[in-house]
Design a protein that fits this description.
Strand 2, helix 2 and strand 3 form a beta-alpha-beta unit. Strands 1-2-3-4-5-6-7-8 form an 8-stranded parallel barrel, surrounded by 5 helices. The longest helix has 25 residues. It has one domain: TIM Barrel (Alpha-Beta Barrel), CATH 3.20.20. By secondary structure, it is of the alpha/beta class. Helix 3 packs parallel to helix 4 and helix 7 runs parallel beside helix 8.
Length: 265
């Protein structure tokens, strides 16, 4: 439970951080913040060299797809096509890095009117359907991350349309705390059976600050307890700086020890 553990790191920063991450005993969630390495063509030489370096260092990988400007449900057909191509490239990279999943954002904007929201959801679902087909071929699970959604309804509708376990959820504890208009634990209570990965970072309840665990107001106990109670395989990424990783690991370990019957430490 709550293993393996990773720390997120932009692709360009991994080589300089690899030794320190290895010393921490963590894997790396590779953040493709700029999709230049994935679109319009996957830059295999660079990525495979990095995969070899990580393997030699004994560091496992997970992959976070690009998200700036990515919107599978956009009204603009060019943006939809670009988003699908970039995320498809990320799937190929996830396979190459032996990542069990690809984390992706929906691109949804809460300010959409009801009519626009319905149109967006149809477009998003069409793109997601194609991504799931490719993900199944590559044996990589998709993990849809909560971002700016203010409540549970969008994820409920998406999971109703896509009941397959090939589509899981990435619970972001920071986003649930600073962007939602509901009590954050409702995310894990409602979707415990779909959550396959967790992003852990702290904040002040207003902005997504990516503070070290315990440095803000995020109630990790309340957010993680429903998942711990259910059991199952859920991996974790510490979305904190490398400098804050050791203390965040210690915070997480102490939290896990406090859960009744925990034997994972």
């Amino acid at each position: 439970m709550f293993a393996p553990r990773y720390i997120y790191c932009e692709l360009s920063r991994i080589p300089e951080s690899l030794e320190r991450i290895s010393d921490l005993g963590l894997g790396v969630e590779i953040l493709f913040e700029d999709p230049v390495d994935l679109w319009p063509q996957v830059r295999w030489e660079r990525l495979l060299d990095l995969a070899d370096a990580m393997s030699e260092a004994g560091v496992i990988a997970a992959v976070h797809g690009p998200f700036h400007g990515i919107n599978l449900g956009s009204k603009d057909s060019h943006i939809r096509a670009y988003s699908l191509e970039a995320l498809s490239g990320a799937l190929e990279a996830a396979r190459a890095f032996r990542s069990p999943h690809l984390v992706l954002h929906s691109g949804f904007t809460p300010q959409y009117s009801p009519k626009t929201r319905a149109q967006w959801l149809d477009g998003f679902s069409a793109g997601l359907d194609r991504l799931l087909d490719r993900a199944s071929e590559l044996e990589v699970r998709l993990a849809l991350e909560n971002t700016y959604e203010t409540d549970l309804t969008l994820f409920e509708e998406i999971f109703e349309r896509f009941p397959s376990p090939a589509l899981g959820m990435c619970l972001d504890t920071g986003h649930a705390t600073c962007f939602g208009k509901i009590e954050p634990p409702r995310w894990s209570q409602r979707f415990a059976d779909r959550i396959v990965h967790v992003h852990c970072s702290d904040n002040d309840g207003k902005d997504d600050l990516h503070l070290g665990l315990g440095a803000g107001v995020v109630d990790f106990r309340a957010l993680l307890e429903p998942l711990h109670r259910l059991g199952g395989e859920v991996s974790v990424t510490l979305e904190v700086s490398v400098e804050a990783a050791a203390e965040s690991q210690l915070f997480f370990d102490q939290l896990m020890k406090s859960f009744p019957g925990d034997t994972t430490i």
